[in-house]
Amino acid sequence: MATKPQIAIIGAGLAGLTLAQRLAPVADLDIFEKSQGLGGRMSTRRATDHQFDHGAQYFTVQTASFSRFLAPFIASGQVAQWQPRIVALRDGKQSPVVWNAPRYVAVPGMTALCKAMSTGLDVHRGQRVAGLRRMAENWTVMLEDGTEKPGYDWVLSTAPAEQSALLLEDLADWTTIRMQGCYSLMLGFETDVGLPFDAAVVQNSPLAWIANNRSKPGREAKPSIMCQSDNAWAEDWMEADQSEVRQKLCDAFAELTRVDPGEASYVGLHRWRFAKVRSPATEPFLFDPVTCVGAAGDWCGQGRVETAFSSAEALAEVVLQAINRRAA
Prior knowledge:
This protein is of the alpha/beta class. It contains seven helices and 20 strands.
């Protein structure tokens, strides 16, 4: 009996886990995730009695494939529609916003979807891939702690484009793909601060988004306000002193809401170096059947959660075809 191909997948966000689910029936997989948690930017931070979706805030559904994928999670209550009171804030003025399509969140936190997807998969958490080495017809995965994992027939990366480029520099012209950073400011209060909205799209400010995290389905923590910075502003402040960044964003929040962040019992800041796709890849995935490497992610399109799924699904299909041809 022929042995199954050995595949290394880099990243345990939605793209990486989509790849793993599709390839698991025909291959032996190792998934390497640099963080201790799952989900990539579909992240949830819990701090004392507060909870923040400090990465992706929600996702939409535009394709039949993603709709079919989500259907069992919606049926089980692990994914639910979010219907916030949403407004636009600009220069002290507030105006209503109408969403023209449903927005969904994972329950009880954005991480929950990827946690459910990881069941039965071999995910190595807290293991950052530092490099790859080609030996004969196999790949060796070199981890940051010095450990080497040899014997992989395929290596598939779902890390952000800039990080995938460091590992797979010959796979594409990475110079055309660019992502922007973002800061997430998390404010936890002991009592409700009385915001007149559940979510706000902000213009002409260091902040671009404010949300009452507790307005999302299944969130039962103490009042938790999630703020995200404007991407262009974040780029200018990416290497600045983080305490100064936090203060600037707190000041912007106070100006917009008239709520004093100094009253928060928890204040957290997270720096996302790769948060928004500024210039995407020209293809829905990257793939080299000769060297047996590939890459996928939301940077292969519009940067939405669904893009990560669609990119990984498309890459999985061509890898399955290649595996089947070799087995024939």
